[in-house]
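Contributing new records

If you add data, match the layout below exactly. Sequence lines come first and carry their own label; structure lines follow with theirs. Keep one chain per record. Anything else will be rejected by the validation script.
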Amino acid sequence: IDQILEAAERLRTAGERTALATVVSVRGSSYRRPGARLLVPEHGSPIGLISGGCLEEEAARLARRALELDAPVLVTIDHSAEGDDLWGMGLGCRGVIELLAEPSGMAAQTLEALSAAWHEGRTSYLLTTLDGERRSLSASEADALGERATLAVANGRPTLIGDVVFDPILPPLHLVVCGAGPDAAPLVAAGVRLGWRVDVVDPRRSFLVPEHFPGARLLDGDPVIAAEAAGAGERSAVVIMSHDYLRDAAFLASFLGREVAYLGVVGPRDRTERLLAELEVTPTESDLALMHAPAGLDIGADGAEQVAAAITAEILTVLHRRGGGSLRDLDRPIHG
């Protein structure tokens, strides 16, 4: 998204019209999920990726058609047929994909909402009809659209509801790393690479070296108020890893009751159980349901880099409500 937003600003400054193509529905096998976007300038190469290379040319053509019509274009691309290599270009991805191409004015509204989500943490709900109407909905109006809209908001991905496209635009995940030891650096770097907003919290100012945590915000507050200092909320994933017993206890107490998306504690299970037992605040069932201790998926991780991979993978499984098993064991499409 950062790449698209930077390109959009550059093209706007240059006075070039742009359209935006968005995957709004996928059935069957596909490289990308709903929400993948392609920025298409009136002249020049598209920016972004919505497939493994088989859809970009067609999506760009549709987006430029939307520019010509000055109206949104919704098209279904079906390469599910056996032996169909026209759309798939031999890649073997057989599925049905629906694309929404937005003309310049609508694209600007969507890009503005994406920028507000990315840089200001603001959530937007956009509704687009095929006759060219665009509305911005409140949270209650979005909720009133029903179960499909609720699921779309939970997943942070657009969906088709009848003949309208509902597009919830959410802020990136907020990763809060509590502890600035050497093993925190790979986790912070992984979060930054994934496009997450990353905070590192540690009361030891000497540990908060910007060169060790590029792309992250560094907070040196008291662990007791870490959740408040970081502004942790429902889009936050918290990992406690200061490796100091009392400091970890203070961090843990700070985040109980915050209803974050993920709460992980690095270290042995019995250590976390002792931490919880000795806290003055009793964790609720909701707190315990959020907690992952030890943090990370069981992938045999060894060393800080691999542990970071295990933790980020577990955060993604929680965020996307997936089991974290092997894809080969699925009896349905990957993005189903």
